[in-house]
Amino acid sequence: MSSEVARVYRDILKAVVKHVGKEDHKSHFTDFVKREFRNNSNSLHLDRNYTYLLNSIHSHKDLLFSYNIAVDRTEEMKRVLGKSAASVGLRLPEVYQP
Prior knowledge:
This is Complex 1 LYR protein. The chain is mainly alpha-helical. The protein has four helices and no strands.
């Protein structure tokens, strides 16, 4: 039972860090999840469902971006290109804004 609790706890923290971020100004999300998990540790099913929901929402959003459903993709493409450039040690140049 305790290994299942640890796995669910790890999964929910991993999902929050992945989808919300781990910067200092976003640490209150992680702190909230830790506090609620410790206070309500007997609701494993609910915690597992919340983790699944969080991952599913972000997967759905990524699918909408990939299908270009009435979404301006310029920021998304800049982010993807920036990640690709960073993976080989390069940076994208700043775009001139008149």
